[in-house]
């Protein structure tokens, strides 16, 4: 028999307990021995739970798990940075293997955790930390292991994908769609980690380390969220044959990893453009396999519970049969992140200008002087002294674009630069 201690009995913890109970016989057959929960850590012992649970299993003292010599595997599902990180490290020091869905801790401290695990011959599995039910960590470690992977694109946050889909399909503005997402339980009361892009940044950091075998510091990842996206931009994108998604991007370069999260125009016939609502996807290119895309719901009790329980089965099987399938990380290198102003991209730009002769010529001159060449221009005629001007640029260095926009802002006939959104034509 293998014994589990679970830290946390919230959304995901409850899902894991349900799956372990419901599929106990099947799991026993897969592992070769029974897998039994012997302690569960919670904050509040008196809280009403949505699952039936033997109260004797519950504790509010983490030491009952971390320092319990009977426990083989610690499943961390309390979330957040501390005390989760401390509990993980101390459990490893005590010879336990770890299963976690904590993207923040893995993205921020993965290197230290994996090194500590390698030193202690423990295993760390974290499939649930990226895109909930979507299998991607183990495929990168196993099924895709023969490939050199140079690029990964992902829609890694279901809340923002739901909001952008709702804004686009129902012509709503951001605040209305956010409220709708909150009412439906797809966005938290404090949605900032999702809508400002940090949640997706943790996830792409994890994927990039694994795919490129290079650790990057999550604090160096360029992050821009979706608060500034307007329904006008979604409509114009559609008119020009694009959709707007919050895209997580990682590209392996010679001098560093180009890794970022920001809204992006994507051609509407690209497979990623079709991922709507709360669905997540990961799209990557392997030198042998070619393009691979997988999609699934990126969160929720049972999808995430499924990923976490699969990790438990894997670790339990490895312990029971004295084998090790989980990849070691000790050969991974550390890598720089390419600075955003050195990156080249196409851009969508929406300006509001006065409807006067010569305004286009002034703007075009500034672009020309700063090496910004234009792929297309859309001028919307309105019976109005103020008109919108829309540009799509060819590839330009971010710093050249920024310099030209700073100059354009100063022109008398330019009222405002309304939107600047990157265009990913080469996915
Ligand atoms: N929810 C999802 O769909 C989802 C998807 C992918 C990944 N994840 C990740 O999974 C992890 C768990 O998320 P969740 O949504 O299940 O969280 P949650 O519903 O907030 O549950 C957290 C659980 O941990 C317990 N807890 C929190 N802090 C504690 C502390 N200091 N000491 C003891 N117990 C503590 C809570 O106890 P009480 O019950 O007593 O309050 C609760 O049972 C997070 O890392 C999250 O990012 C979640």
Automatic annotation (TrEMBL):
GO biological process: methionine biosynthetic process; threonine biosynthetic process
Binding positions for NADP(+) per the UniProt entry: 7-14
Entry keyword set: Amino-acid biosynthesis, Metal-binding, Methionine biosynthesis, NAD, NADP, Oxidoreductase, Sodium, Threonine biosynthesis
Domain of life per record: Bacteria
Active site: 203 (proton donor)
Recorded family membership: Belongs to the homoserine dehydrogenase family.
Record-given protein name: Homoserine dehydrogenase
């Amino acid at each position: 028999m293998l014994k589990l201690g679970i830290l946390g009995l919230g959304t995901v913890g409850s899902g894991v307990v349900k799956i372990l109970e419901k599929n106990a016989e099947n799991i026993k057959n897969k592992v070769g021995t029974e897998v039994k929960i012997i302690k569960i850590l919670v904050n509040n012992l008196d809280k009403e739970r949505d699952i039936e649970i033997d109260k004797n299993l519950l504790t509010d003292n983490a030491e009952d798990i971390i320092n319990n010599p009977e426990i083989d595997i610690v499943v961390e599902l309390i979330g957040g940075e501390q005390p989760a990180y401390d509990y993980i490290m101390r459990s490893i020091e005590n010879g336990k293997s770890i299963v976690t869905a904590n993207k923040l801790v893995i993205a921020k401290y993965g290197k230290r955790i994996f090194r500590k695990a390698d030193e202690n011959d423990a295993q760390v599995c974290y499939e649930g930390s990226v895109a909930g039910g979507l299998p991607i960590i183990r495929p990168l470690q196993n099924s895709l292991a023969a490939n050199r992977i140079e690029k990964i694109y992902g829609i890694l946050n279901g809340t923002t994908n739901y909001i952008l889909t709702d804004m686009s399909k129902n012509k709503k503005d951001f605040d209305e769609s956010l409220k709708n997402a909150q009412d439906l339980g797809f966005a938290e009361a404090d949605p900032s980690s999702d809508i400002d892009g940090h949640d997706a940044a943790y996830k792409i950091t994890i994927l990039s380390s694994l795919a490129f075998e290079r650790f990057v510091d999550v604090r160096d990842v360029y992050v821009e969220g979706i608060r500034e996206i307007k329904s006008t931009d979604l409509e114009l994108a559609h008119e020009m044959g694009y959709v707007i998604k919050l895209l997580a991007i990682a590209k392996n370069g010679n001098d560093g990893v180009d890794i970022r999260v920001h809204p992006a125009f994507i051609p509407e016939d690209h497979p990623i453009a079709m991922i709507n609502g709360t669905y997540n996807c990961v799209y990557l290119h392997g030198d042998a396999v070619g393009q691979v895309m997988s999609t699934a719901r990126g969160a929720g009790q049972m999808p995430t519970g499924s990923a976490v329980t699969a990790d438990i089965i894997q670790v339990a099987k490895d312990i029971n049969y004295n084998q090790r399938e989980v990849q070691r990380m000790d050969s991974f290198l550390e890598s720089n992140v390419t600075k955003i102003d050195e990156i080249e991209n196409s851009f969508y730009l929406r300006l509001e200008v006065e409807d006067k002769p010569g305004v286009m010529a002034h703007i075009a001159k500034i672009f020309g002087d700063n090496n910004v060449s234009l792929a297309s221009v859309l001028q919307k005629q309105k019976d109005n002294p103020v008109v919108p001007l829309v540009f799509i640029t060819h590839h330009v260095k971010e710093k050249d674009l920024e310099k030209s926009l700073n100059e354009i802002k100063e022109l008398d006939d330019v009222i405002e630069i309304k939107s600047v959104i990157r265009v990913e034509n080469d996915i």
